[in-house]
């Protein structure tokens, strides 16, 4: 712009040029002098621009900020800022700063939730919006338009370099391997996949657990729930699947559970070999509800990244209930009315948003097979979170306290569990045998008391007779040690051996 101006109207520039630059001394007398004068012109303009550029660089940028007006419990109120829900900011303190997220607003007031502790906050502290960190623009790479809420959401690190790492809900390493090296990042909230573009679930996945492989076959890209009361074996079963499932990458989200279990999961369950192909995101119970929500979203974001690279990902989330509880804590704190059993409506909207992100990508691409644990408080299968999760997942594996108490592990309640994609994954003959297995097993269970007191007379019910005969084999088939794996093919073979006359 400067060049054009100079060439087109040198008089105007001369007149607006600061006095003392001596332009009038270089009045052109002939052609050669005119060239010299123009060079002089250019040099002096360039000098001036350089000086100004340095001055601009030295100046402090204009910082938009608001003020903290109220803190109650975990919710903070701020005024003086106009920020979108979901955007992040930091609160300036004399010696440090606290990161927070906008979780709602009322009139001019913004409701903020801290990422960690609110210790040290003072009235009137400055609140400064922070821009999401984005992947640097590379030459030749098309930048998608930033119109949707996902584009404005917080961006956290993703990439191959996360394999073998343990991170917190904000993408900070918790292990001893130093800071993350690369700067690729992705939004915590992704764009929904067009349901018509999703590949169908059609390949069975080997999860290494006999009872699941044969009776509750899981497909690549399926999302399953693991339901039970506390201490029945959800985490142990998830661990078995983490160890034995054939997947390219495993992403583990340990959300709201005991901190002790994080280390146990990494050292005892995954082991060195397992960890090398895994990324662990841990937001245990003692972290803020925001961190727990973010941890679950981040684990899903990482899984999505690997799926988009064409990988078959296993996503393990322990637990979905704690995720819902974190959302309940936040929603209640900002004044949302509780609806079902103390859970506000937003909880039931958040669950499908998270779960729908897992599953298959486009045809020929990668997949995310996901297992979410769901705590059914007091073994109540009608718990609102369990009910909602059952409706949005593609199947549920129910663990029974009765079985666990009798030492039957994994304590899968075959009658109550279902894999909704199974009929597309196995042969019709196998599917029929599974129905028969369930029928006999259930029939035996219903008559168990009669049989055990010797009140049943052999021959009065032919189905029960065969169930009694088959039951020890069925039970033996369903039990499996914690450190024992059973491949898909041999699970199927052993299953059909139970029905020798029908194969
Ligand atoms: N397959 C198994 N074989 C032997 N013992 C098991 C098995 N699964 C679970 N257990 C026993 O049950 C205990 C509780 O299991 P786990 O921690 O997996 O329960 P949970 O359902 O995840 O509990 P919470 O809801 O409290 O997280 C284990 O510490 C272990 O002793
Ligand atoms: Mg557990």
UniProtKB/TrEMBL annotation:
Q: Where is the AAA+ ATPase domain?
A: 220-403
The catalytic activity, as recorded, is:
ATP + H2O + cellular proteinSide 1 = ADP + phosphate + cellular proteinSide 2
**GO cellular-component term (any):** cytoplasm
Single GO term (MF): ATP hydrolysis activity
Going by the UniProt record, its keywords in alphabetical order are: ATP synthesis, ATP-binding, Bacterial flagellum biogenesis, Bacterial flagellum protein export, Cytoplasm, Hydrogen ion transport, Hydrolase, Ion transport, Nucleotide-binding, Protein transport, Translocase, Transport
Q: Where in the cell is it found?
A: Cytoplasm
SMART domains, per database record: AAA
Cited InterPro entries: AAA+_ATPase, ATPase_a/bsu_AS, ATPase_alpha/beta_chains, ATPase_F1/V1/A1_a/bsu_nucl-bd, ATPase_T3SS_FliI/YscN, FliI_clade1, P-loop_NTPase, T3SS_ATPase_C
Please give one Pfam family short name: ATP-synt_ab
* UniProt GO BP: bacterial-type flagellum assembly; bacterial-type flagellum-dependent cell motility; protein secretion by the type III secretion system
The protein's matches in NCBIfam families, at most eight in alphabetical order, are given as: FliI_clade1 (TIGR03496), fliI_yscN (TIGR01026)
Q: What is this protein called?
A: Flagellum-specific ATP synthase
């Amino acid at each position: 712009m400067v060049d054009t101006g100079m060439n087109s109207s040198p008089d105007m520039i001369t007149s607006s040029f600061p006095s003392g630059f001596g332009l009038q001394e270089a009045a052109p007398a002939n052609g050669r002098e005119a060239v010299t004068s123009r060079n002089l012109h250019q040099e002096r303009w360039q000098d001036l621009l350089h000086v100004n550029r340095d001055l601009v660089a030295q100046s402090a940028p204009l910082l938009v900020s608001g003020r903290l007006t109220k803190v109650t419990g975990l919710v903070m109120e701020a005024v003086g800022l106009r920020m979108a829900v979901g955007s992040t900011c930091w609160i300036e303190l004399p010696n440090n700063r606290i990161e927070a997220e906008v979780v709602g607003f009322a009139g001019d007031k913004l409701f903020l939730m801290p990422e960690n502790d609110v210790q040290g906050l003072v009235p009137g502290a400055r609140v400064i919006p922070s821009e999401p960190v984005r992947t640097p623009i590379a030459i030749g790479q098309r930048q998608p338009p930033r119109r949707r809420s996902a584009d404005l959401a917080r961006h956290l690190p993703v990439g191959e370099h996360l394999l073998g790492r343990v991170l917190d809900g904000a993408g900070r390493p918790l292990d001893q391997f130093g800071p993350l090296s690369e700067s690729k990042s992705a939004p915590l909230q992704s764009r929904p996949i067009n349901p018509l573009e999703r590949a169908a679930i059609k390949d069975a996945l080997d999860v290494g657990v006999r009872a699941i492989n044969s009776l509750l076959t899981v497909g690549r890209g399926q999302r399953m729930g693991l339901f039970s009361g506390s201490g029945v074996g959800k985490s142990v079963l998830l661990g078995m699947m983490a160890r034995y499932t054939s997947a390219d990458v495993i992403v583990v989200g340990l959300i709201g559970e005991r901190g002790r279990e994080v280390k146990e999961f990494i050292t005892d369950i995954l082991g060195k070999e397992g960890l090398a192909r895994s990324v662990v995101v841990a937001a245990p119970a003692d972290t803020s509800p925001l961190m727990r929500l973010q941890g679950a979203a981040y684990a899903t974001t990482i899984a999505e990244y690997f799926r988009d690279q064409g990988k078959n990902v296993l996503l393990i989330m322990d637990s979905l209930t704690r995720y819902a509880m974190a959302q309940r804590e936040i929603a209640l704190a900002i004044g949302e009315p509780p609806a079902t059993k103390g859970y506000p409506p937003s909880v039931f909207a958040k669950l499908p948003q998270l779960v729908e992100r897992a599953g298959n990508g486009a045809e020929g691409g990668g997949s995310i097979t996901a297992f979410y644990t769901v705590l059914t408080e007091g073994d109540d299968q009608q718990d609102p979170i369990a009910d909602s999760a059952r409706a949005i997942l593609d199947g549920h594996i129910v663990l029974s306290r009765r079985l666990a108490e009798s030492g039957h592990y994994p304590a899968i309640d075959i009658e109550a569990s279902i894999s909704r994609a199974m009929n597309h994954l196995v042969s019709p003959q196998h599917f029929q045998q599974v129905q028969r297995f369930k029928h006999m097993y259930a029939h035996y269970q219903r008559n168990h008391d009669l049989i055990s007191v010797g009140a049943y007379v052999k021959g009065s019910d032919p189905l029960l007779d065969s169930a009694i005969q088959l039951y020890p084999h069925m039970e033996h088939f369903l039990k499996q040690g914690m450190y024992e794996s059973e491949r898909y093919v041999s699970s199927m073979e052993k299953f059909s051996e139970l029905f020798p006359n029908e194969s």
